[in-house]
Amino acid sequence: MDIWPVTSAMKANRTTIVSVSVRVAGVVCYAAIASCARHEPAAPAAAGAGPPAIPYEAHISAGGRTPAGGEFNNPFRNDPVAAENGEALFSAMNCDGCHGGGASGWVGPSLADGRWRYGGADGEIFSSIYFGRPKGMPAFGGAISATAIWNLVTYLQSLKPPAEVPTEYWEE
């Protein structure tokens, strides 16, 4: 007489459970390996083309020669709908958490006073948002699309500088 009938039933079920577990683990491993397939990087636009860069007056070029760079063109320049989308995104992405409501400045600099540390042209603003800047401006290029960044640029360019700016210009 078996004094542990439950144990016998458990032993019989254990083989089935282990078999199913091994199969599930195999499927998971196969999916993980398949998802690790190598992807070829996108080919550059032109052989020898440099990264999209914008020459600034503050850049110091080795040998006095400025490297070739790309040119950014805002596809939404002066588009009121894009400016509205940019304004909504400015709040949604918490840009106003640093740059204040209406981009008037708070712990981050004002983006509405017409004074730009890293340049106020469309491509320069795009570059600042996309790549970030030292001392606090994070790079959003990996978090939002280029279209969204251009909407932000259009919004910032639509802001009218105040008649009286309460702070001094940072550069003399």
Give an overview in words:
With 172 residues, the chain is an all-alpha fold. The protein has a domain at 79-158: Cytochrome Bc1 Complex, Chain D, domain 2, CATH 1.10.760.10. Helix content is 41%, strand content 0%. The protein has 5 helices and no strands. It has helices at 5-35, 80-92, 96-99, 122-131, 146-158. Helix 2 crosses helix 5 and helix 4 (122-131) crosses helix 5 (146-158). The chain is extended and about 80 Å long. The model is unreliable at 37-50 (pLDDT under 50).
Q: How many beta strands in the DSSP annotation?
A: 0
Q: CATH superfamily name of the domain at 79-158?
A: Cytochrome c-like domain
- The CATH architecture of the domain at 79-158 would be Orthogonal Bundle
The proportion of strand residues reads under 5%
Silhouette: extended
Give the helix proportion (percent range).
40-55%
Topology order in helix (H) and strand (E) letters: HHHHH
Radius of gyration (Å): 28 Å
Name of the top-level CATH class of the domain at 79-158: Mainly Alpha
Layout of helices and strands, plus pairs?
Elements lengths: L4 H31 L44 H13 L3 H4 L22 H10 L14 H13 L14
Helix pairs in contact: 2-5, 4-5
Supply the key terms.
172 residues; mainly alpha; extended; Cytochrome Bc1 Complex, Chain D, domain 2
Brief summary of the model shown:
The chain is mostly helical. The protein has helices at residues 5-35, 80-92, 96-99, 122-131, 146-158. It has a domain at 79-158: Cytochrome c-like domain (Cytochrome Bc1 Complex, Chain D, domain 2, Orthogonal Bundle).
